[in-house]
Design goal:
The protein is mostly helical and 142 residues long. Helices cover 69% and strands 7% of the residues.
Length: 142
């Protein structure tokens, strides 16, 4: 229930704009065939940016137990290219959104979500979104 409430407030207070930024980046990358791997990553993160509470990001190789093109050396190269062409402006958008949220005590949880998303803008290729409960069950802390 708290995740649902957090996502509703997130959506109403501007989370939708950053999700649209991710979606726009994905559309721009999808224009060329070469950009399709980045587009896929951007669309995955756009859905996460739309409703981030109750879900988390994890590397696909940790999730599946096997390496793929997005989690290999090609993924590293892909993340470098991503940052140069799209990551830095999405990162700035999340940082500025976080600072706006931090202006009030009530906005701190949403500010933290923006900072988490700002961090993922640096390297979104090779990431998957899963529910937090699944992550805790598969990868217990302890």
């Amino acid at each position: 229930m708290l995740s649902f409430l957090g996502n509703v407030i997130w959506f109403l207070l501007g989370g939708v704009f950053m999700a649209l930024g991710w979606f726009l980046a994905g559309c721009l990358m999808a224009i060329s065939i070469i950009g399709l791997p980045w587009a896929r990553s951007a669309f995955v993160i756009a859905r996460f940016a739309l409703v981030p509470f109750g879900r988390t990001l994890i590397r696909r190789d940790l999730l599946t137990g096997r390496q793929d093109i997005g989690t290999s050396g090609w993924g590293v190269l892909g993340n470098i290219l991503w940052f140069v062409f799209a990551g830095w402006w999405l990162c700035l958008g999340h940082i500025f959104s976080a600072l706006a949220c931090f202006l009030t005590i009530i906005g701190i949880p949403w500010g933290w979500q923006h900072l988490k998303l700002a961090a993922i803008t640096l390297a979104p290729v090779g990431m998957a979104v899963i529910p937090i409960r699944e992550a805790e069950a598969r990868f217990p802390r302890g």
